[in-house]
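Thread: NPS3A protein, structure

OP (GT): Posting the sequence first so everyone is looking at the same thing. Length is 223 residues per the record. Can we get the structure tokens written out before standup tomorrow? I want them in the notebook alongside the other entries.
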Amino acid sequence: LATGPRQNNGIFYEIRTYDIKPAKMKEFLELVSKYFHFRTAHSELVGFWYSELGAMNKVFHIWKYDNFAHRTAVRHALANDKEWQGKFISAALPLVEKQHNEVAYLVPWCQLGKPPKEGGVYEWVTFQMKPGGPALWGEAFQAAVNAHINTGYTRLIGVFHTEYGLLNTVHVLWWNESADHRAAGRHSAHEDARVVAAVRSSVKFLESQKNMLLIPLQCSPLK
């Protein structure tokens, strides 16, 4: 995690969340469908989702960058891309109520994964940990994640630790075949002694947590 070992390269992920005006979600998603290829021509999109449960009228996307110079060059190119600015940005901005972004790294014990097939649902879980960083809570958090993986009901896609944004925040992205499959798996996990023990060890470092059920858009590489 951030205060301990990290990747041997500068790769990071920008997590962007947009709150869309409630009456404008359909219009916004139509713009994405028509014009988002102008944006993905400039840098790598990891995933693009809209919220189904846990939040409303939110879209959520993750971008991969080699380093901060790479991001700066991409942002400069986007500002000068007339098709992107004219066809998407000018039409989309009036539909957006709020924007938020974070920069995060994958934790060193996690590689970015993929689902075994298309058509499932994603769960984005945000943990606000106590100040002190991974030196304080990193091992306990990793054990709790691994305990859920070991139950086999869910697939881990990525664990991200913030570098810019609210610090001591960890985001975990899971994939499940369906919302019902996830619900059944969670019920079983709560009765699994391995999960119970790992959660009890990690929760003492936890300030708060929240989750969202996410549906991928057609343009999302993670579907």
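GT: Both are above now. Quick notes for whoever picks this up: Strands lie at 12-20, 44-53, 58-65, 96-106, 121-129, 155-164, 169-176, 206-216. The chain has seven helices and eight strands.
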